[in-house]
Amino acid sequence: MRYVKWAFIILFWGFIAAVLHYTLPQHDIVRITDTYERRIDPGENSIFWAQHDVGSDATTANRDVFFIQTRKANGRVMVYRNEDTGWSWPPYFKINSSNLQAEAADLKSTEDNPRWVALRHYGWRNEFISIFPNAVKVWPVDDPATRIIPWFNIIFLVLFAALVWGIWVRWRRFRERRIDPMMENVEDGFYAAGDAIDERRGRFRRWRDSWRS
């Protein structure tokens, strides 16, 4: 039973960690090489796509999605989608994908004359199931060694840890005051019932033995 308990705990916190890693903002220092628009048809990976742009027809299955093509300082290529999130999850309330696409297009550069930018995004990139991180904001930086301190993530995780700690402390106190005494009473009741059964069996054996003798 202990292994089942720990397996459940590991799966639960692993799921929470995956959701936070996907949802919280991340920053990349990149050079924008191209911007384009492509018609996509979300299938089994539709959970990793946002939604139609705010104000557009949300009844159609396929739609046009903006993409931002970049290259990092180490030469690695990274492609981002640029979709509105609107009022849905995750709560970025992003409704400016067209403006962001125009800003990204204006910041394009070549390898000979690079212009480095910081690109804020959320999500994962996976080529196997064709998912892309969603760009949220872009702005120019001085060089590719620029370091972005994730203050929002730090504050959020500290507050989240404090909330979890507070809930756990209150649950522990509640269990010690309410649940543990109740379980002890139930356990004592089982022991008392067992003792009573043993006593009755003993009386029956003595009665039976007296008839045999």
Report on this structure.
This protein has 213 residues and is of the alpha+beta class. It has two domains: 22-148, Beta Barrel (OB fold (Dihydrolipoamide Acetyltransferase, E2P)); 153-213. Helices cover 44% and strands 21% of the residues. The protein has helices spanning 2-23, 97-106, 151-212; strands at 26-40, 63-72, 77-82, 116-122, 134-140. It has a five-stranded antiparallel β-sheet. A hairpin with a 4-residue loop joins β2 (63-72) and β3. The two termini are 49 Å apart. The model has no long low-confidence stretch (mean pLDDT 84). It comes from Lutimaribacter marinistellae. This is DUF1523 family protein. Keywords: Membrane, Transmembrane, Transmembrane helix. The chain crosses the membrane at residues 148-169.
Brief summary:
The chain is of the alpha+beta class. Helices cover 44% and strands 21% of the residues. The chain folds into two domains: 22-148, OB fold (Dihydrolipoamide Acetyltransferase, E2P); 153-213.
Strand order, largest beta sheet:
3-2-1-4-5
**Distance from first to last alpha carbon:** 49 Å
Q: Classify the secondary structure makeup into a structural class.
A: alpha+beta
CATH T-level fold name of the largest domain: OB fold (Dihydrolipoamide Acetyltransferase, E2P)
How many β-strands, per DSSP? 5
State the low-pLDDT regions, or none: none
List the domain count as a whole number: 2
SSE string, helices as H and strands as E? HEEEHEEH
Largest sheet: 5 strands, antiparallel
Q: In terms of quaternary structure, what is this?
A: single chain
Radius of gyration: 30 Å
Helix fraction by DSSP (H/I, runs of at least 4): 40-55%
CATH C-level category of the largest domain = Mainly Beta
Kindly report the average pLDDT value: 84
Protein name: DUF1523 family protein
Pfam families: DUF1523
Keywords: Membrane, Transmembrane, Transmembrane helix
Organism: Lutimaribacter marinistellae
